[in-house]
């Protein structure tokens, strides 16, 4: 779910009072119907998610990449991660796996990485399946990863703030337990959001992705959110988007699907790095020619 926070931004668009005051259309056989308006639900959800002290996040991302100049066909990549997050101070424990499948290797899936990470105020500890060794990231890498984690976070509070200017474009439904919000963007509007998302990044992240983003365009984006009727927490989010990038005269297209499930709201007291991790961790060599001190 990392692209979405970079792509969506709080562009200043006028809210349609008629759209904001509409009530949710019920799905079939809904018994617990609510007459709350879209604007009321949005504000209550913003407040509930802004008061989060901790949350658990399960995320799945799938990408199908095709290259017009590549005779070997398409490449599919999938990522699955499970994260515990505590907000203040921001700490995180995450496990993630990345797999790849290529068209010319039908039926074969290659495991690219299995990573476990602890992010704390001072340090980032990481272990992958290649080295099978806990490492402490150098200061400059740790700072960039922390900024990236915050900027790319799929936390509902961030998403709601960024989506508020598009409130008049949502469709609004409900089932017995949830309010269901859907948003569809395409063409110039989606590309404007992509550009505005660049402005939300810090300078280091901007310099890292600037060249890629300049040559990228979004054909369309579909977003769907489920908000719990009692707690007003966002419990589920799905994003689908089609992107195209032109580089060196070649066109690369990507279909991306991201699904996020949120749970354990305010149930995680603290995230501690285990003593065995601290004791066994070694310092990673800096890619900038210096060793973390």
TrEMBL record:
Gene3D superfamilies: 2.50.20.20. The keyword tRNA processing does not apply. Pfam families: DUF6612. It comes from the Bacteria. Keywords: Signal. Residues 1-24 form the signal peptide. Transmembrane segments: none annotated. This is Lipoprotein.
């Amino acid at each position: 779910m990392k692209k979405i926070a970079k792509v969506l931004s709080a562009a200043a668009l006028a809210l349609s009072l008629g759209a904001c005051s509409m009530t949710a259309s019920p799905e079939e056989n809904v018994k617990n119907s609510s007459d709350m308006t879209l604007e009321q639900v949005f504000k209550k959800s913003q407040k509930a998610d802004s008061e989060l002290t901790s949350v658990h996040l399960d995320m799945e991302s799938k990408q199908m990449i095709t290259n017009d100049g590549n005779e070997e066909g398409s490449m599919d990549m999938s990522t699955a991660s499970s994260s515990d997050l505590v907000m203040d101070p921001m700490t995180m424990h995450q496990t993630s796996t990345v797999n790849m499948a290529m068209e010319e290797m039908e039926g074969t899936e290659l495991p690219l990485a299995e990573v476990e990470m602890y992010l704390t105020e001072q340090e980032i500890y990481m272990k992958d399946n290649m080295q099978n060794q806990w490492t402490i990231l150098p200061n400059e890498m740790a700072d960039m990863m922390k900024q990236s984690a915050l900027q790319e976070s799929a936390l509902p509070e961030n998403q709601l703030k960024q989506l508020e200017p598009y409130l008049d474009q949502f469709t609004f439904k409900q089932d017995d337990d949830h309010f269901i919000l859907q948003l569809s963007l395409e063409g110039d509007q989606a590309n404007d959001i992509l550009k505005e998302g660049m402005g939300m990044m810090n300078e280091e992240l901007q310099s890292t992705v600037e060249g890629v983003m300049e040559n990228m365009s979004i054909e369309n984006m579909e977003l769907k959110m489920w908000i719990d009727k009692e707690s007003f927490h966002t419990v589920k989010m799905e994003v689908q988007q089609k992107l195209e990038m032109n580089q060196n005269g070649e066109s690369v297209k990507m279909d991306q699907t991201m699904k996020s499930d949120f749970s354990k709201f305010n149930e995680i007291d603290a995230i501690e790095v285990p003593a065995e991790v601290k004791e066994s961790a070694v310092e990673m060599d800096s890619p900038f020619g210096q060793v973390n001190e």
